[in-house]
Structures are given as structure tokens and as C-alpha cells.
Design brief:
disordered N terminus; 626 residues; isomerase activity; alpha+beta; PpiD_chaperone; Triger factor/SurA peptide-binding fold
């Protein structure tokens, strides 16, 4: 239940206009609202001008914010002139509100010191790195938004003044404990109801309708019977994977591939080295002298090498393939097991190298890799054949644009044919975005009775391609009366049933309120069901709203009303008991705070409304231009 109060405190005006985080204004375009001027104005507020440039900047920033939030969905909204005009009007209204608040703050003498502005900038999280103010980040951010340090400071001053004004009005509101108790009882209230249901489906089955009634309903609701655009299509599919099963590979092909690609089927020569790394040339030469004197390489590596990782393993670097061997190792030209290099200088320092072992190149026999080569060659041949077939079919479809006959001959297969379908019911075999776009963009459809065109080759995911042709086309339009007569019959019967249920319910409600309900209910074949507990929800249904609109029952007399259930049936409501809610003590303080915030929002709303009523606001030509 606390969610209801939290939702109530989510006040749009305070969020959009004032906001307690200063940068939220900046990032949504409020930063430009109080700067600049032009003779081609959007509005004048008590003589203070809001320029076209200010409004255009506000709209642009709002567009950018919505684009980031909605992504591709915003493109559809932006295409609506009505929506964009509404967006422009909202932006202008926000500018006017901010200007009014700024003027009122000056009238009250609300001021902000330079130190307060500095503190606000330093405390803004978007200007911090590791919780510390980052001057470079600050300058980069405001410059990216088109501000200098001076005019950004002026902007911050305006926002802080507005905050002080909002806080002043918010702090003046308070909620008495008795108000908190009363509101919590109302919000958490529970109601006991019984319902009697008029079964609309059963009533609809008893209704009679005439053709004239159906025609009248059809004429009044034609827009409810719009038939979407429909197509019948022929298509030829080319599938590289399917062609792979038909591709032949000979033993000669396999042997030739094996001979040309032996490196793919074996392990190249590998060498194993050990190394001692010294800190300078003198140490390296001293170690080299010890080795020449018969010292053990592994023991020296452990004792002397500054590369501790290899040194712990006696200098061992493991096996290396040619492509992973350092150039210095190769240039040492060590070819005999146990051979040691002299001192080698490199970019990494000074080191001495020892060749521990050589593993010759190894190649898997043809028999071991025969099947994998066959699969690879089949795939390559299938792809070659697939691309060749695409070109062949494309040429045929282009040269003979009257039908797919020539393309069928080139493909060596017959075209497939679909039944009627719409853009919302694409057959699975051709349900690929590039194919659907080609079919419904209008380019393949003939006009004024002329035949349509063959498509170009359309490639889709999975190495598949299509050539398509529209065989028949039905433009979007109103469905004929005869096609929707059955649907009309059901709809009119349903409407008549709902009307009858409403009338019958009103009669029964009158009888119930007059104390004669029992006989009336019995005559109608209805009765009230078992008790249902109804509580308020964040987004109440019509049924819940109707239940809570009923007067509280007395000890000897329930309250009655009419509503609809989730299935659309008309229902009689019998309210028998109301239980006041009780707020847990642990949540009382938070509940009171939410109420106080709601009260503050209402007070601020009233202030803003009063400022608008008293202000002289004149709209300019830029208010409408886009």
C-alpha cells in the first residue's frame, strides 16, 4: 500500500522544472533556457523574451533524450507532425514555467552566493572521478554541451535559486498525526462485497438481429473492418547447405588438397629453450663465463636470472612453434640439443639462451584426415555452385521479367506458391526481413492492372537466397459487408446483450435500494455470491473504482451498485462491510513523509498556477514553427 503514496509523490512538475539534482536540468536541455535572446521570439513572459534559439535548443535536447530512451521506437514518433508539435509545446511550457519561477525568486530576493555555486559544481557526481572533483572532466562535459565556465556558472545560479524557492514552499507544509491516521485508514481500507453476474454471452445467444441493424452498425463502424494489404507470392529458393549434399568429391580431389595443405594436418617443428636473463652486460658476461667453465645452466638460472618466473623452473620456457619464437631466439641459430648462445642483447635486456630439445615436424596420414577434407571440399564446391547459381538465376529473372519461368529453368526447380497472407502473417518459408521488405515496399507490384516484376536475388542469413514475384495483390481497404456479416452478427448481438444487461441491472438496483430486491433477483434467476475482499491497488480497475465509490453500508442495510467484471459482464455489487486499514508503526514515519511531500507538491502546483494566471504571456511566431 505504501507504493500508492510513493507514486503520488512522483510529481512531474518538480521533476521536470526544478529537480534536486542540478545536472538533470543540464542534460535535458534546461541549461540553454535562460541564456540568449532574439527578435524572432517564441514567447514573452512579463516582457522577458524566450528566443527561438532557446526553444529550438530545448526541443533538440528533449529529442536527444527520447532517442536515447526509446531507440528505434522514437523514429516512428518523430514522423508524426502532431507528436512533434506537442513535444515543442511541452518544451515551451517548461521554458515559461522556469522563467516565471526565476522572476518570482528575484522578486522575493532569493539569492545564491558564489561559494554556493562552486560547492554545487564540486558536488555534482558527473564531474567527479573516484568521488573527487575532476576539473578536466568538468570542462570537457560542459564544453561538450556548448557552455563556457562563466555561463555554466550562471546556469547553476539560476537552478540553485529555483531549488531554494521549491524548498521554501515545501518546508512550509506539514501533516498532522490525525491526517496521517485518516489517510492510512483510507488507503489500506478493505471492503467486503458480493456480486451477482449477468452472463453476457448467454444473453447474446438469445438476441435477434435484422439485416438492417447489421447494415446500420457496419456503416457506423466501417473503420473497424479494415482489411490489411494481402499478397500471393511465387518464389525460388537457393540453399547452399542443400547443394552440399549433391556435390561430388573424388579421391583425386582429396589427395590434391592434402598435398597442397599439409601444414593444416600436422604439427610444425617445435623447439624447447631455457634462458637466463641478466640485469646488465657485465652480469651477462660473468654468467656466460661460468657456463663455459662447466657450471650447470639450470642451477645458474635459478640463482642468477632476474626473470623469476622462468628462473624457478631452471630457465625452462617450454615448447615454442616458429610463429611464437622471438626473432632473437631465431637469430641465435642454435641447432644442436644442449647448445648455448653467447650473451644476446635485446630490447628486453641481456640474456643467454640454451636449446634443450627439437621436435621435428609431424604430419597426420591422409587416411586420418580423409573425411574432414571431403567435408571441406564439399562445402567449398557447394558455395561455388551456389554463387554461380545465384548469378544464373538472377540473369534469367532479369531477362524474362514476365514470369519466373526462365528463372525456374535456370534454377532447375519449380517455384513455390503461397496462399494469401498479410505483413503480420508471413509464411515461415519466406519469413526473412530482406524478403518481407522487398515484398511490401511496392516495387514488385504492378499498377493499373499491369503485371508486377521479378525481384533481384535476395540473400538472407544461412547462405540462402530467394527470387520472388507477387502473383496477386489486394490493397488495404474496408472489408465488404458480406465478408464480415458473421462477425457483425456476433458484435451486434453482444452489444444488444450488454444494453439489456445494463437495463436489467438498473431495474434490479432500484428494487434493491427500495428493499424489494430478493423477489426481483429471484425472478431474474440471479443471486449474490460469496464474499470477496477488495483492496485498493496502484492502478485500480473499473470494478475496484466502482466498489470504492459506494457509500459505506450501515449495520442493517448494504450499499448497492453496478459495474463490470474483467470478462465484460455486467454485475450488481452488494457492499456489506468496510474495514479501515491500520498502518504498521514501523511505516508511519515514512507514510507521513510521503503525505508531506504530496502536500508540498500541491502547494507548489498552486504557486505555479497562480504565477501563470497573473503573468502576461505572449506567444511569438517561433512557438509554432518547427
Amino acid at each position: 500500500m505504501m507504493d500508492n503514496l510513493r507514486a503520488a509523490a512522483n510529481h512531474v512538475v518538480l521533476k521536470i522544472i526544478l529537480g534536486l539534482i542540478v545536472l538533470s536540468f543540464v542534460l535535458t536541455g534546461v541549461g540553454n533556457y535562460l541564456i540568449g535572446g532574439s527578435s524572432d521570439y517564441a514567447a514573452k513572459v512579463n516582457g522577458q523574451e524566450i528566443s527561438r534559439a532557446q526553444l529550438d535548443d530545448a526541443v533538440g535536447n528533449q529529442r536527444s533524450r527520447l532517442q536515447q530512451q526509446l531507440g528505434d521506437q522514437f523514429a516512428a514518433l518523430a514522423g508524426s507532425d502532431g507528436y512533434m508539435q506537442q513535444l515543442r509545446q511541452q518544451s515551451l511550457n517548461n521554458l515559461i514555467d522556469v522563467t516565471l519561477l526565476d522572476q518570482y525568486s528575484k522578486k522575493l530576493g532569493v539569492t545564491v552566493s558564489d561559494q554556493q555555486i562552486k560547492d554545487a559544481i564540486l558536488a555534482t557526481p558527473q564531474f567527479q572521478t573516484n568521488n573527487q572533483f575532476d576539473n578536466a572532466k568538468y570542462l570537457q562535459t560542459i564544453q561538450g554541451m556548448g557552455y563556457t565556465a562563466d555561463n555554466f556558472a550562471q546556469l547553476m545560479k539560476q537552478q540553485l535559486v529555483s531549488q531554494q524557492l521549491a524548498q521554501a514552499y515545501g518546508d512550509s507544509d506539514f501533516v498532522l498525526p490525525v491526517e496521517t491516521q485518516s489517510m492510512s485508514q483510507l488507503v489500506l481500507q478493505e471492503r467486503d462485497v458480493h456480486i451477482a453476474t449477468f452472463n453476457t454471452e448467454a444473453l447474446a445467444g438469445k438476441q435477434q438481429v435484422s439485416d438492417s441493424e447489421l447494415q446500420a452498425f457496419y456503416d457506423q463502424h466501417k473503420n473497424s473492418f479494415v482489411a490489411p494489404e494481402q499478397l500471393k507470392v511465387s518464389y525460388i529458393e537457393m540453399d547452399a547447405a542443400a547443394m552440399q549434399g549433391k556435390t561430388q568429391v573424388t579421391d583425386a580431389d582429396v589427395s590434391a588438397y592434402y598435398d597442397q595443405h599439409k601444414s593444416e594436418f600436422g604439427q610444425p617443428e617445435r623447439r624447447r629453450y631455457s634462458v637466463i636473463v641478466a640485469k646488465d652486460d657485465a652480469d651477462a658476461k660473468a654468467i656466460d663465463a661460468q657456463l663455459k667453465g662447466g657450471a650447470d645452466f639450470a642451477e645458474l638460472a635459478k640463482a642468477k636470472s632476474i626473470d623469476t618466473l622462468s628462473g624457478k623452473k631452471g630457465g625452462d620456457l617450454g615448447w615454442m612453434e616458429p610463429e611464437t619464437t622471438l626473432p632473437e631466439f631465431k637469430s641465435a641459430n642454435l641447432n644442436t640439443k644442449g647448445q648455448t648462445s653467447g650473451v644476446i642483447k635485446s630490447d628486453s635486456g641481456y640474456f643467454i639462451l640454451r636449446l634443450e630439445d627439437i621436435m621435428p615436424e609431424q604430419v597426420k596420414p591422409l587416411a586420418d584426415v580423409h573425411d574432414s577434407i571431403v567435408d571441406k571440399l564439399k562445402q567449398e564446391k557447394a558455395l561455388d555452385a551456389y554463387y554461380a547459381l545465384q548469378q544464373k538465376v538472377s540473369d534469367a529473372a532479369s531477362n524474362d521479367n514476365e514470369s519466373l519461368a526462365s528463372a525456374e529453368h535456370a534454377a532447375g526447380t519449380k517455384a513455390q506458391h503461397t496462399d494469401w497472407f498479410t505483413e503480420q502473417s508471413i509464411p515461415a518459408a519466406i519469413n526473412f526481413k530482406p524478403v518481407v521488405q522487398s515484398l511490401f515496399d511496392g516495387s514488385l507490384i504492378g499498377h493499373d492492372g499491369a503485371p508486377g516484376n521479378n525481384s533481384d536475388v535476395i540473400t538472407v542469413d544461412g547462405d540462402r537466397a530467394f527470387v520472388v514475384r507477387v502473383d496477386s495483390h489486394k490493397a488495404a481497404g474496408i472489408k465488404p459487408f458480406a465478408d464480415v456479416k458473421d462477425q457483425l452478427t456476433q458484435m451486434v448481438k453482444r452489444q444488444k446483450a450488454e444494453d439489456q444487461a445494463r437495463v436489467d441491472a438498473e431495474k434490479l438496483l432500484t428494487a434493491l435500494n427500495a428493499g424489494k430486491g430478493d423477489d426481483a433477483l429471484k425472478a431474474a434467476g440471479l443471486s449474490f455470491g460469496n464474499v470477496q475482499k477488495v483492496q485498493r491497488t496502484a492502478q485500480p480497475s473499473d470494478f475496484e473504482q466502482n466498489v470504492y465509490a459506494l457509500a459505506q453500508p450501515t449495520a442493517d442495510k448494504p450499499s448497492y451498485g453496478i459495474s463490470r467484471d474483467p470478462q465484460g459482464n455486467t454485475v450488481l455489487i452488494k457492499l456489506t462491510a468496510v474495514t479501515q486499514g491500520k498502518l504498521p508503526d514501523a511505516e508511519a514515519a515514512q507514510f507521513n513523509q510521503q503525505l508531506q511531500q504530496t502536500s508540498s507538491n500541491n502547494t507548489f502546483d498552486a504557486l505555479l498556477g497562480n504565477l501563470r494566471q497573473q503573468a502576461k504571456i505572449k506567444l511569438g511566431s517561433a512557438a509554432q514553427n518547427q
